[in-house]
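Entries read chain and fold; for instance:
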Amino acid sequence: MFSRHRSGASMIVGTLALLFAFSTQAKPLDIPQNLDKIDLSFEQVRGLKKDAVTTRLGDPLSIEGPVGEPAITRWEYADFYVYFEWDTVLHTVKKPSG
């Protein structure tokens, strides 16, 4: 009933598409050699409780909240904010430089 044969043109287009897809190459990623000097501690607190954040990062400069339901609290540090839902870190946000 239906033909399973493909036309020559569609096979060529398909082959060219596959060749193009496989011929693209990834660009090298430059990774700094001094990774120990980069402070990523603010990014590594998601899921922690408030007391664990205080232990790891110290006392915040200020605390705002809780606000809303569920209760959201924001702790301010020198370079970033830490957002909590109840007692657990939801997210960290780096302060804009400028």
